[in-house]
Every structure is written in structure tokens, then in C-alpha cells.
Amino acid sequence: MSKKVLIINPWIHDFAAYDFWIKPLGLLYLGGLLRQNGHEVHFIDCLDPFHPAMHKIISKPPKRHSSGNGKFFRQIIPTPDPLKMFSRNYCRYGILPEIFREDLKKQQDVDIILITSMMTYWYPGVFEVIKIIKEVMPQIPLVLGGKYASLCYDHAVKFSGADFIIAGAGEKQILQLFQKLFDEKPLFMPEESNLDSYPYPAFDLINKIEQLPLITSRGCPYRCSYCSTHIFNDQFRQRDPVKVVDEIEYWQKKTGVENFSFYDDALLVNPQEMIIPLLNELKRRNLSCRFHCPNGLHLREINEELSELLYISGFKTIRFGFETSDLSRQIQTGGKVKNEELYNAVNHLKNAGYKTGGVGIYLLCGMPGQKAREVDDSIKFVHKCGAKPVLAEYSPIPYTEMWNEAVSSSPFDIQNEPLYHNNSLLPCCNDDFNFDDYKELKNKLNLI
Ligand code: B12
Ligand code: SF4
């Protein structure tokens, strides 16, 4: 029998948060799948920058941009005890708790609630949502999944207050839970090996669509020591590029959306099988879109043909994962890119029409044992190649190869307190790379 399912995207609690095309893609995938199984799905988005009740009471709504990124609503809240030593404002990003409570009360006869979680250090926003739900609807089974729930499973079991915690990819496990709780045999189960058998995410539940996230693959063929991708998807799987274009066309016709953000870990890998046919198909269908890749792309795959295709297809925001120009660290961390690959890729991108400021190169800073000098040299190298360095502060992630080193080098108890995974704290800073060094590097970047 059809169940009424409420899916919830929780608040972000952090010192700072900006909407770089952030959407709860995994949760909305589950929403689509549950619908396909005959259930009724409702959505509360605590981060909704267009929530009508907020717009009624807030005189200055968050500034948004035409490309679909922008600010969230925010309220300053007390800093959690473990972070009290930092004198910055701590905030709840998203709608007011009273409005969330009202939205919850409007939901009648809910059978089950699903909550997602993103960054491990954003768990206080998840806990606040759970606490309110348990006050308003104490009897309803509440399931927590997503990144925090997977990477900090024991912490979530102990402290979150959720009734069920699911780690890893959720599709199969949520249908199994429905079977256990409601004696519901799945009507439809996607084939794990075929990503095109997954129903589209329930994007139509988003209040106002400025942009939509897309994912053409799950996982990544590389195994960088600082990255947790393999924990969620052990195998690298790609969709059929024509089916991805079908999806883009479907959402564009249905909602008029023009901005799309790619959430892939490895969008450019196997270019002849994915990105090149995808972009050619977009051209053939005469679809006009703007694409944003806030997540780092692979420099290694960039050549003349791909650069031109990206440029003419409307890839407006492109960022690449380079991380460091230090050869020994490149090898130690997995060898996903070499210095000459950055140099060549930037040349191709520039010849295709991209400007220096348009080619953002992520540089990881604050890795265990990393010296300020290494980051400085990497910045200089990126400049020399003609691109824009973008500092990405290292966030230690449980189960990654670098985790043990991070635990022993961090001045914080990152093992027991996920709040200390927050990249903005530089959790693994050391005598050779401290906050002053970081600020100096940031200032240098701003002056250029
Ligand atoms: C896209 C992305 C971003 C986007 C934003 C995405 C968003 N929605 O917030 C951007 C580019 C902004 C971003 C930024 C950063 N990110 Co990021 N990002 C990702 C990425 C690549 C994809 C997330 C995604 O949507 N995946 C696709 C969906 C389908 O998968 P999913 O969300 O996991 O959902 C599945 C399951 O989790 C589960 N599930 C999800 N919800 C629920 C709910 C229930 C009830 C159930 C049962 C199951 C379930 O089922 C889903 C379907 O299988 C992940 C890596 C990855 N492969 O997932 C990193 C990742 C989340 N990011 C990470 C990092 C490190 C960062 C940065 C700190 C990088 C940096 N140094 O600057 C910043 C931080 C931003 C900030 N303000 O603090 C880390 C996590 C770090 C942490 N400590 O938690 C990850 C895991 C990558 C890594 N390096 O290992 N990121
Ligand atoms: S290439 Fe990127 S996504 Fe793949 S393992 Fe390395 S950091 Fe993670």
C-alpha cells in the first residue's frame, strides 16, 4: 500500500556557508525511486532561499545570482562547545525553526521520514531537525542517511536520535527497510550496475528551480588518499550519455531551467564514452544550457577538442582538482595529475576561449605535514600556467587512506568530534602551516 513519505534536507550549521549550486541530490534520487514504487513523497527543504513564509518576515532576502548560486537565509546561533575557542559567528543557514515546525505540522498522516546529511561537520543542523521532528511527530519512524551518517555512523547511532541510520548508497537499503517496516515488497528495484535504470530525482518537489544538479556517473577510477569517494561507490559506473541528454531536455522542457551543475567525481573520465558524445548530442538537439562544475574536474582529460566543446557548450564555471605542484605529494596521494598536464590543459582551455579567471584550479592546503611553502609554490605554478588558483582547505575524512595521519597530526580530537573536520578550521594545521600562513596566502591571492 502507498505510504506517505516525508523527505527533509536539514539546515547547515557552520561559521560560513554559501550556496555553490548545493542541492540534496541523493535524497531527491531516493524520492524519485520511492514514487516509482507507488509511494507519495513530500519535501521540506530547510535551505530553501525562496521559502514564502521567510520572504513574508525578512525584509532583506538572500542575494541570488542568475546562474543559480547565491546566499542562504541565516541566523546567528550559539557556537557549540567544542568550537568555542573560535571567535567567529556561528550560524544556522536556512529557514527559521518556527517555520520548519509549521511546515511539519502541515504534514498529516506521514508514515516515514527520511533525512539526508552532507558534510560530517554539519551534523548539528541534522540533529536540530531530528529534535524538532521528535517533538512534533514522536511516533513516526525517522531514517537518517547521507555523508555524515555513512562516514560517522557510530557517532550518528549514539547521538543523532534517528530511529534508523543507513550508511552508503541508499537505493537498495531504503527499499529493504520499507519491506521490513511495512511488509512492502518493492514494485521496482533499479539495477545497481545500470545507472540509467534509476528513476529521475524528484526535482519537481523543489519550490523554485534556479538550477538542477546532474550526475552522469557514480564513483571514480582513482583512489586519492584524501578522498572518500570509494566508500560510497566502490565501482566506477557511467550512464549512457544520450540518456543524460534526455534528462537535461526533460527538465528543461518541464521547468524551463537553463543552469545545471555537475556533481560527478569523474565527469571527464572516459571522454569518448561520456562527455564528448554528451556535448555533441546537446548540440545536435540545439539545447542551450549553462553548466557549472564546482566540484573539481580531471585536468588529465583536457585536450583541444574537449576544451572547444566545453567552451561552446556553455560550461561557465569550471574548476579542476590539481591540489599541489609538489611531485612527491602528487605521487603519494594517488597520482591523478602531473604538472605538465596542468600546463597543457590551461593552454588548450585558453585557446578555446576561456580567460585566466575562468579556469579555477583547486589547491589543497592544510594536509597533514604540508608546509606553507608547498602551497605557495603551487600557487606560483598555477599562475605561471595562466590559471586562477583556488585554495581548498583540507577536510579530514574517516576511512580515507590519509585519515590515520590526519588523526595523529591534528591538534583537535577529529576522531571523536566531527565538528573538527570543518575545513575552515584547518584541522591539520601545524607549525609549518598555521592560520597566519594561511591568511597571508589568501591575502596574496586577493591582491592578484
Ligand atoms: C557535489 C559535491 C559538493 C558540492 C555541493 C554538494 C551539496 N549538495 O552540498 C560542492 C562543490 C559545493 C562541495 C563542496 C565541498 N565538499 Co563536497 N562533495 C560533493 C560530492 C562530489 C557529491 C555529493 C553528491 O551529491 N553525490 C551524489 C549523490 C547521489 O550521492 P549522496 O549524496 O551520497 O547520496 C546517496 C547516499 O549518501 C544515500 N543517502 C543520501 N541521503 C540519504 C538519506 C537517507 C534517509 C538514506 C537512507 C540514504 C541517503 O543515498 C544516496 C543515493 O545513493 C561528494 C563526493 C561524492 N562522491 O558523493 C563530495 C563530498 C561530500 N565533499 C567533500 C568535501 C571535502 C568538500 C569541501 C570541504 C571541499 C573543500 N575542501 O573545499 C567543500 C565544503 C563546502 C563547505 N561549505 O563546507 C567530502 C566530504 C567532507 C566531509 N568531511 O564531510 C566529500 C565526501 C568528497 C571527498 N573529498 O571525499 N561538495
Ligand atoms: S580523482 Fe577526485 S574524486 Fe577521484 S579519488 Fe581523487 S579526489 Fe576523489
Q: Can you describe what's shown?
A:
The protein has 448 residues and is of the alpha/beta class. It has 2 domains: 4-182, Cobalamin-binding domain (Rossmann fold), CATH 3.40.50; 214-447, TIM Barrel (Alpha-Beta Barrel). The protein is 35% helix and 17% strand. It has helices spanning 25-36, 52-57, 97-106, 123-136, 147-151, 153-159, 171-182, 229-232, 241-255, 275-284, 304-312, 327-332, 339-352, 372-385, 403-409, 435-447; strands at residues 4-9, 12-14, 40-45, 74-77, 90-93, 112-115, 142-144, 164-165, 211-214, 217-218, 237-238, 259-262, 290-297, 315-323, 359-365, 388-393. The protein has a 6-stranded parallel β-sheet. A 5-stranded parallel β-sheet has the order 3-1-6-7-8, sandwiched between helices. Strand 13, helix 11 and strand 14 form a beta-alpha-beta unit. The longest helix is centred in the middle third of the chain and has 15 residues, at 241-255. The protein is globular and about 60 Å long. The mean pLDDT is 97. Cobalamin binds next to helix 1, strand 6, strand 7, helix 5 and helix 7.
